[in-house]
Structure formats: C-alpha cells, structure tokens
Write a structure and sequence with these properties.
The structure holds 2 protein chains of 2 kinds. Chain A is 20% helix and 41% strand. By secondary structure, chain A is an alpha/beta fold. The two termini of chain A are 39 Å apart. The two termini of chain B are 29 Å apart. Chain B has one domain: P-loop containing nucleotide triphosphate hydrolases (Rossmann fold, 3-Layer(aba) Sandwich), CATH 3.40.50.300. Classes of the chains: A alpha/beta, B alpha/beta. The interface between A and B is medium-sized, with 24 and 29 residues.
C-alpha cells in the first residue's frame, strides 16, 4: 500500500510542541482515520496520485532562499519552506498587516475549524511550522502579497504552508497568494478565509510551483452577510497539483465570483475541485473555469454548487470552457448543481474545443504564421481570466509565462 | 508580367468539385468585378486564392507576379501582397483590435524589409488610416470584430487593407449586410486605396456596389467557370435581365 506508506512517512517526525499541540494531536488522529486517497476515492478518481506516493518526502529543514523577486507596490509576507522569513518580507510600520498571529486571540477564534474531512488539510494542521495571519480591520490600499517559496534541495522534501485571512466588518483588501519553488518537493497548502459582514476581498491565487513539484492545496472561505469575495485562481506549475476550494455563504446577499485558469503541458496533472454551499437567501455565485491542456497532460475540473433548503433567491452561473491543444492531452470537466430549493436561478454549461480553424486562417491571412496565430488564440483564451487580475505587473508576468 | 494569372483553376471542398477551370488575368491599376449566383463558385475562388485549408486545388495554376501562388502558405501570400477581405470576418475574443492590427502590420512590414512600429508609433498610423473608413477609434480597443455590427466588421476589413497595402485586394461580398450609408463609406475607403500599382477584385452578387467602385472588367461565374466577361455595362445588364440569359448564351 503505497498510500499507507506515504502517510506513515508524512507523520514520521514528532509533532511540533506549541500552542497548537492539542489541535495537532487531533489532526494526526483524523489523518490516520481518513487515510490518503486510494483509487476508489470518488473525489480523487480522475487524479492519479502515483507521482506523490512514489517519492519519499523528508520534512523540509530550513533552507536558504535565493533572491526573491516580489511585486512592486505590495506589502509582502514571505515564507521559505513553510517558515516565515522576516528578511524577505516588506511590511507597513503601522502594523495593519502582521505576518504571524499566534499572540492574537482573534486567530484562535477561526483557526483550523473546518476541512475536517480533508486528509491533506489535517496533515497540514499536524505538521505546519508557521501560519500567516492577515487580519484587516479597515481598508488596506496596497495589495498584500503572501509568497510561499520552496528552496531547491537534494532529497525530496515536504513542507506545509498555512494562512488565515480575516477581514472584519466592512474591511477591504486585495490579497495575492503565490506558490513558487524548485526541484522535487511536496507543498501542502491550507488557506482559511473569513469575511465578516460587508467585507470585500479580492483574492488572487497563483500556483506556479516548479516543474517537478507536487502541490495539494485546500482553501476554505466562509462568508458572512453582504460580503463580497472575488477570486482568481491560476494553476500553472507542478508535475501533480490539486486545489480544493470550498466556499460557504452563511449570510444573506453574499456575492462571490470565482475565476479559474489551469494551464497544463508535458506530463502535468492538474486538478481543481470547487464546492460552493449556498446556505442563506439571496446570494450570488458566478464561476468561470478555463482549462488549456497541451502535450500529454491532464486537467480536471469538478465544480459543485449546492443550493440548500431555505436559500431562496439564489442566483448562480457556472461556466467551464476548455481548450485541448494536443491529441494526447485530456480534460475532464464536470460542472454540477444540486438544488434543494425552488425560487432559484441557476445556469451552467461546459464546452471542450480545439483552436478554431477559421480563426487560425483569419490570422494567417493577415500575415501571422501558424505558431504566432496559435499563440495569439491561446493567449486570448487565457486573457479573459488573467486580465481581470488587478495587479498589472502580475498580469504581465503571467502572460509571459503562459505564452512561453 | 501580369500581377495575377489564373489558368484552368480547379478546386474542390470535401470531395465536391466547385471550380471547374477558371481563367482570369488581373493587372496593376485594374478593378475587376466577379459576379454570379449563389453557388457559382465566386466565393470559393477568393478563398482558394487566399489559401483556405478546407479547399483542395485539383488542377490548373495561379501565378502571382510570375510565381506559383500555391507554393506559398496563406501567411506568405499575405506578406507577398495578396489580401482577402472576408465575407464573414472572424471574431477573436480576448485579442484587442489594436494589438492584432499592429501584430499583422509589423509581421508584414518585417517580411518586406519595412520599419516595424512600437505601440505609440502604430497608434499614430492607425488613427490616420482609420479615417479612410470613418471608423470610431473606440473599436481599436475592443476585441477583434467581437460584437461589431456587419458594417463595422467590413470597415475593419478595409482598415486592415489600408494598413497592409496589398497588391491585389479581393473583396468577398463586402457589400453584403451593409446599409446604404455604410456601403458608401466602405466604397469610398476602397476607392481612396486604389492606385496604378494595385488591383481590386470585387466578388459580389449585386450590382449596387459597382455604382460606387466602378469596375474596368465584369466577369460572370457560373458552375465553377467564368462564362462571360465585359465592361461595367455587363453588370447593369445582369441587374436588369438576371443571370439566366448569360447561362443560356454560354
């Protein structure tokens, strides 16, 4: 049993002794009870985890990050191999953004409450070193860039990134969550987001791990009355990646927008699972997911929107558009709706296509060669998602990357 | 040497023979009109000349300035100076019109040894050229043809013609879907681009475009061949008498 051996190994080191020790202990017991997903696990059916189970990951010892390029005009919180790096971080003196919140009692009100059925999230809770705590009480004008970097090392290493984002009533912020690294490693990421009444978060998640990496991320977002959550999630990197995003609309008139883009090539496997629970009336969710798969890669999208009893006046729209660039690539797209209520407006659709030969011919008839025409059309497909990212410098760097 | 010589051209699509031996000669400074009923093969002729991949050339030859046109890829034909204004210009969501126009312009310029322009320089040029078709500059910032009306799409085609400065411009049903004002604007644009060094080929069903862009030659296509050639008087005669008599005579 490769998955069992992998779990044993990931639990092999003693748990850290700190304020979270009781939670760590609980998490270990849960992780053991849940076990790592095997072939028959429904939610992992389309994602081959052999690449994860085939490697012996050691817990990552503190590494030294090379020079880190940030994004101009942002506050920056940097974690290297799961540990906070003061040296690389840039923070306001006013203390409106603080990197670690162990001493802040507010953290403990929200920390580690959910994802009890997610084995990887429980492993994270058992093993994480530092947790970023972004608590916004009013408005933060500059985007907050939280960067998780893995350093290159000789043996495969596992590290745990963790973040809690709390926006108080009426607070406003832009958050960029980014993953980078080099070499063979396993990044297990957990992000918890809590938006209090009428808070407004623009959340950009960029997963551009190294080519040989495994990335498994769990994001849980809890939304109170009148809050507005606008997210763009881009998955580019990693040999094997999975991102599970769970939203819960707890209060009335929550407005959520989820944009996603997955780009895969060569032998990459990238899986995006989302679930949105409408638990209160008059909330809205607009979701748009795009996958572009080339080479012999595989992209998976499973998006589930659940409208619970009592969630009247729900308005949702879900769109999954996919571009297959090679005969050996594969895309599985499954938009799903569960409606346990009437008086709702829910629309969804999925398309899988190739580059349109008429569009290609049109561009060629204006002098562009095959490669330039293809590039322009692929770029155009991705641009609809990427162009909405509110940080110009990041948009440009993502365009460079997706066009190379 | 003629600019474009079409000799015995045969072509098919999906195994169905459409062009059955087209002969046509076009020279610098000339304006030609190719008329005919739907299904006569006139649109196929323009697509074959531009290199549409759905069509297979099964016979004959086409010389463009003395060189075999079919040895060139579609983009090489465009760079060499062949231009097709599409009957149905393609929408390309996500690509801004100005970025697309500049990319096309610079690619063609580079192939001709001309100067490539940066976005600011190109903006000056395109704002000058856009006057030719009286197009609102706001259309430069929108995605290529996306949500454009029929008339706006056709203006955008002629704007591309103005930028790429072709030697032979084939206008495929450029008059279709245009109201009378848009027709006049598009025709004025084409007339202002006409010169002693280039040729215009209008492919059209109706005579009305020819009131604005006056042809030197009018060709009638029927069942994949050019069955009659005359001057502009022929177009008027077709308008009056229909196509049947040409058929009967041919």
């Amino acid at each position: 049993m490769k998955d069992a051996a992998c779990l044993t190994r990931l639990l092999g080191n003693p748990a850290k002794e700190d304020a979270f020790s009781p939670l760590r202990e609980e998490a270990e017991a849960r992780a053991k009870a849940l076990a790592l997903p095997g072939a028959r696990h429904e939610s992992w059916r389309l994602t081959d985890l052999a690449y994860l189970y085939g490697q012996d990951f050691e817990p990552a010892a503190p590494g030294v990050a090379p020079g880190i390029e940030g994004i101009r005009g942002t506050w920056r919180i940097v974690f290297v191999d799961g540990r906070y790096s003061k040296e690389h971080s840039v923070l306001p003196e006013s203390g409106e953004v603080s990197p670690l919140g162990l001493e802040d009692p507010a953290l403990h009100d929200y920390f580690g409450r959910g994802m009890k059925d997610e084995v990887f999230a429980q492993l994270n809770l058992r093993n994480f070193e530092d947790c970023a705590f972004v608590r916004v009480k009013n408005d933060v004008k500059q985007p907050i860039h939280v960067l998780f970097v893995s350093t290159k090392r000789d043996a495969p290493a596992a590290y745990y990134s963790r973040m809690l984002v709390l926006l108080e009533d009426n607070a406003n912020a832009t958050l960029i969550e980014e993953y980078r690294g080099e070499g063979h490693y396993f990044c297990n990421a957990v992000t918890e987001v809590m938006l209090k009444k009428h808070a407004n978060l623009r959340h950009v998640r960029v997963q551009r791990e190294g080519n040989d990496a495994v990335h498994v991320g769990n994001t849980e977002v809890n939304l109170e009355q009148g809050s507005h959550y606008d997210s763009t999630s881009v998955s580019l990197g990693g040999r094997l990646s999975r991102h599970s995003l769970h939203l819960a609309h707890h209060g009335e008139r929550v407005d959520a927008r989820l944009d996603g883009l997955t780009l895969t090539d060569a032998r990459q496997i990238a899986d995006v699972h989302t679930r949105v629970d409408h638990l209160a009336p008059n909330c809205r969710t607009v979701q748009r997911q795009k996958c572009i798969a080339d080479g012999a890669s595989a992209a998976v999208f499973s998006g589930n929107i659940v409208v619970h009893e009592g969630a009247s006046g729900t308005d949702t729209k879900q769109e999954s558009r996919n571009l297959l660039l090679s005969g050996r690539a594969k895309i599985d797209a499954q938009p799903q709706l569960e409606i346990l209520n009437d008086d709702v407006s829910c629309r969804h659709g999925a398309t899988v296509g190739q580059l349109d030969p008429e569009e290609l011919f049109y561009l060629k008839s204006r002098g562009l060669d095959e490669a330039a025409a293809r590039k322009l059309l692929i770029y155009a497909f991705a641009a609809e998602i990427v162009d909405r990212i509110p940080v110009r410098e990041l948009v440009e760097s993502l365009k460079q990357r997706s066009l190379s | 040497m003629k600019l474009l010589e079409v000799r015995g051209l045969k072509a098919s699509v999906g195994g169905v023979s459409i062009l059955k031996g087209v002969d046509l000669e076009i020279d610098r400074g000339e304006v030609h009109a190719i008329m005919g009923l739907n299904g006569s093969g006139k649109s196929t002729l323009s697509k074959v000349l531009a290199g549409h991949p759905a069509y297979t050339v099964t016979g004959g030859e086409v010389l463009f300035e003395g060189k075999n046109l079919f040895e060139l890829e579609p983009e090489e034909r465009a760079r060499a100076g062949l231009f097709l204004a599409f009957q149905y210009p393609v929408e390309v969501p996500g690509v801004s019109n100005s970025a697309f126009l500049r990319l096309a312009y610079n690619t063609v310029q580079a192939s001709r040894g001309g100067e490539e322009l940066d976005p600011l320089e190109f903006d000056d040029l395109v704002r000058e050229k856009i006057k030719v078709v009286e197009m609102d500059p706001a259309f430069l910032e929108r995605s290529v043809n996306e949500g454009f009306s029929g008339g706006e799409k056709k203006r955008n085609e002629i704007l591309q013609m103005a930028l790429l400065e072709p030697k032979v411009a084939i206008l495929d049903e450029t008059d279709s879907g245009l109201d009378i004002d848009a027709l006049r604007i598009v025709a004025n644009g084409v007339n202002s681009l006409k010169s002693a060094d280039n040729a215009i080929v209008m492919v059209t069903h109706y005579q009305r475009l020819l009131n604005y862009i006056v042809p030197d030659y009018v060709h009638v296509m029927d069942s994949g061949r050019i069955v009659k050639t005359g001057d502009k008087g022929l177009a008027l005669e077709l308008e009056e008498r229909g196509y049947e008599w040409v058929r009967a005579a041919a």
